[in-house]
Amino acid sequence: MKAEDIISRIQQSIPSAQIKAYDMTGGGDHWQLTIQAKEFNGLNLVEQHQLVYKALGEWMHGPIHALSLNTRAAD
Fold first, then answer.
1. What are the pLDDT digits (tens) for 35-70?
2. In 28, 67, 69, 73, which residue has its Cα 20 to 30 A from 45's Cα atom?
3. How would you classify residue 52: left for phi > 0, otherwise alpha for psi between -120 and 50, otherwise beta?
């Protein structure tokens, strides 16, 4: 899995998302994501993360083995 694939998939569901993706192991299955988005406004941290998991869908059960998220609302 490539960073561009993850970024594209998230931006389909969260269009305003500004995303930094870091492959933690070089194997394409352990990712650290930093995401800032207007869609997160008014949501708590769990709700923000749920939006990201929903955007990634079935990838969370296959190509992505581990995910570290740092999310925040945009101004």
1. 999 999 999 999 999 999 999 999 999 899 999 999
2. 28
3. alpha
Query: Can you read off the two tokens belonging to residue 21?
Result: 């993706």
Domain 3-73 has CATH 3.30.300.90: yes
Round the CA-based radius of gyration of the chain to a whole number and report it: 11
List Cα–Cα distances, 18 to 7, 37, 41, 71, in angstroms: 9, 6, 14, 10
pLDDT score at 75: 82
**Domains in the chain: boundaries:** 3-73
Contacts of 37 (CB under 8 A, 6+ apart): 14, 16, 17, 18, 71, 73, 74
Residue 9 contacts residue 51 (beta carbons within 8 Å): no
